[in-house]
Write a structure and sequence with these properties.
Elements: H1 2-17, H2 20-40, H3 43-82, H4 88-104, H5 110-114, E1 133-134, E2 141-142, H6 174-178, H7 185-190, H8 192-199, E3 203-208, E4 221-229, H9 248-257, H10 266-279, H11 281-303, E5 309-314, H12 331-334, E6 335-340, E7 355-358, E8 365-366, H13 374-378, H14 401-424, H15 456-463, H16 478-501, H17 512-524, H18 543-560, H19 576-579, H20 592-611
Antiparallel strand pairs: 1-2, 3-4, 4-8, 5-6, 5-7
Helix pairs in contact: 9-10, 10-11
Region (Disordered): 19-53, 402-448
Domain Helitron helicase-like: 460-611
Pfam families: Helitron_like_N (PF14214)
Length: 615
């Protein structure tokens, strides 16, 4: 027993004398040894280790409780003997000492109390290190402090469950404009939101609420967000997708003459229009729709009959597409063009959940933000090849990276063989080929039971993760800010939708009294009660979440006393971690994702200094 106590004291003295760097090295070595050992142990050893840990912790907890109970009894006995004998001056002195002790706080451990207080001159500047840790599943870059305990990164790809194909190479001249390798790159970046709006197939409608002052650019909105497009060929003032229904020169003239595009360069307008018409499948489907409409007019005139109406259905169904092979859909994948007498789609075609574009009719057509066409139609300069946005049919990837690489190699070989077969016999373009979905070797593996799917938050987290290839989504400056805000609104709207549709599972029956009160009051005032939906406290920003946070803060104050300090921790855009990980032609305000990551790491380190190191 004496030897154990001596070893414990010797170890404690050693820990008190080691520096902060030595402590970090020791913890890292212990962490790696623990991970290595636990990876090699079998299930029986794991269960035995957990049982030993449980017994040891239970014994320590019992000993601690016994010691605390004994100390409380001794303190109470001494206190009972002392209080009746002390004078008023001694009582005042004792209460003053207790007040100062409560205000200063007691160090949590003896080790923290024994450490010497270092002067501010000896405190090094905190540095997160280089962003050189690579995720083994998706190749995303991370800081050392972002690495989880078991080296599987969660935020970029959810430990390999969310794997999206890399985007196609950014076409010219957009790539040079975004990378500051074009004579008009500076002008383009200052007007990038105008250029995107001029070439978009759909609009984003929201009430802009720019912050006051002359600080860095900040995109801020207030209220509801809408995504709209319009019927084509119906107005004298065409906008958005209607501009792709006409030739390029005429479309550029309309774009330049719009008052909101004042200051934009016509040459850039024409170059970007040409780029999108060559690379974007949505531009191709509108061009095809125009050709079908012109052919119908000529045919109707030749046959001396009224022409039929031409419409288009942009499909939102991605169930039959392999997400590994088709990240940029083709024209036939995303749209169907039809002709009818009354302008309505064929009766055998179910258009629920799809986007119907008529050749005339409604002025505005609202796009569901939960559909895959919303992002590429609203942000063509961020998705120039028409890559799909998030949709509800994106399954988790259940294959390992090695299996995916082997499958990709097989796809290349099969693609070469298929190309030889295609040269011999090419099927009709309008022929619809039905395959055996269950026996398709290119489809992702499915787990048994309920099929799990990628959430919106996981999808957008994957897109904004930093990797070695050029990602135009993160190079858009002000347009990137707008897209990130728009994506966040979509995520929140989807969460609210889930809560609205699952009120029964969220146990809102306990609010029946509130509903009865509202109904009775409305009946007395001769008013109609709408549907009541309860936002739980788990939804950040809801009234219940704010009240719960306030009550937690008040509980802390009631136990430990009122706060002594109010700390304000701000971000410095010139921190080395920020400037070293963004291109030199972008500023910190152009990369809110990097600013948020670095700020969060430093904030966590500050909390760790206060909470653990007793700074």
């Amino acid at each position: 027993m004496a030897r154990t106590v001596a070893d414990r004291l010797r170890h404690q003295l050693y820990l008190n004398e080691e520096s902060q760097e030595e402590a970090e090295v020791r913890r890292e070595l212990n962490r790696e040894q623990t991970v290595t050992y636990r990876e090699t142990e079998n299930e029986e050893e794991t269960e035995e280790r957990r049982e030993d840990s449980r017994i040891r912790m239970e014994r320590l907890r019992e000993e601690r409780e016994e010691n605390e109970e004994l100390m409380r009894a001794m303190d109470a006995f001494e206190h009972a003997e002392m209080i009746p004998l002390e004078t008023d001056e001694e009582r005042s002195h004792r209460e003053k000492i207790l007040e100062e002790r409560n205000r200063a706080g007691v160090p949590r451990t003896h080790r923290a109390a024994c450490k010497k207080i270092e002067s501010e001159a000896n405190v090094p500047i905190h540095y997160c290190g280089e962003m050189n840790l690579i995720c083994e599943e998706c190749d995303a870059k991370h800081f050392k402090a972002e690495r989880p305990q078991y080296k599987k990164f969660q935020k970029c790809c959810k430990k390999g469950k969310v794997i999206l194909p890399p985007p196609k190479e950014c076409p010219e001249p957009l790539a040079k404009l975004l990378q500051n390798d074009h004579p008009k790159a500076k002008h383009f970046m200052s007007k990038i939101r105008n250029y995107n709006s001029a070439h978009a197939f759909a609009s984003m409608g929201a009430k802009m609420n720019s912050p006051p002052g002359r600080g860095p650019y900040c995109f801020r909105i207030h209220g509801q967000v809408y995504h709209n497009t319009a019927a084509v060929g119906t107005t004298d003032n065409p906008k958005y997708a209607d501009l792709y229904f006409m030739d390029a020169t005429q479309a550029s003239s309309y774009r330049v003459n719009v008052e909101a595009n004042g200051g934009c360069c016509r040459d850039l307008m024409e170059e970007l229009d040409e780029m999108l018409r060559e690379n974007n499948p949505y531009a191709a489907i509108y061009k095809k729709m125009r050709q079908v409409l012109e052919e119908e007019y000529l045919k109707a005139e030749a046959e001396n009959r009224p022409h039929q109406f031409v419409g288009m259905i942009i499909s939102s169904d991605r169930k039959n597409l392999d997400q590994r092979r088709y990240n940029s859909p083709t024209t036939d994948d995303i749209a169907i063009i039809f002709k009818s007498v009354n302008g309505k789609p064929p009766v055998d075609r179910d258009i629920r959940g799809h986007l119907l574009i008529p050749s005339r009719g409604r002025k505005f057509i609202q796009i569901n933000p939960q559909k895959p066409m919303c992002d590429p139609m609203t942000y063509p300069l961020l998705f120039p090849s028409g890559e799909d946005g998030w949709h509800s049919n994106m399954p988790y990837t259940t294959t390992t990276r090695r299996e995916r690489e082997e499958a990709a190699a097989m796809d290349v070989e099969e693609g070469e063989e298929q190309q030889v077969l295609d040269e011999e016999e090419e099927p009709d373009a309008e022929e619809e080929i039905e395959g055996d979905e269950d026996n398709d070797p290119h489809r992702l593996k499915r787990g048994s039971g309920k099929r799990k799917r990628v959430t919106q938050c996981e999808f957008y987290s994957y897109l904004i993760s930093i990797r070695d290839y050029f990602n135009q989504v993160l190079a858009g400056g002000p347009l990137t800010q707008q897209w990130i805000v728009d994506s966040y609104v979509k995520i929140e709207a989807n969460r609210v939708k889930y809560i609205r549709e699952h009120q029964a599972e969220l146990r809102v029956a306990q609010y029946d009294g509130l509903m009865d009160y509202v109904s009775n009051r409305a009946e007395r005032e001769n008013k109609t009660v709408g549907t009541i939906h309860i936002l739980p406290s788990s939804f950040i920003g809801s009234p219940r979440a704010m009240k719960q946070g306030y009550q937690d803060a008040m509980s802390i104050c009631s136990k430990f006393g009122k706060p002594t300090f109010f700390l304000t921790f701000t971000c410095n855009p010139k921190w080395k971690e920020i400037t070293a990980n963004i291109p030199n032609y972008l500023t910190a305000s152009d990369r809110p994702d990097m600013v948020a990551r670095v700020y969060n790491l430093k904030k966590n380190e500050l909390v760790h200094d206060i909470d653990r190191r007793q700074v």
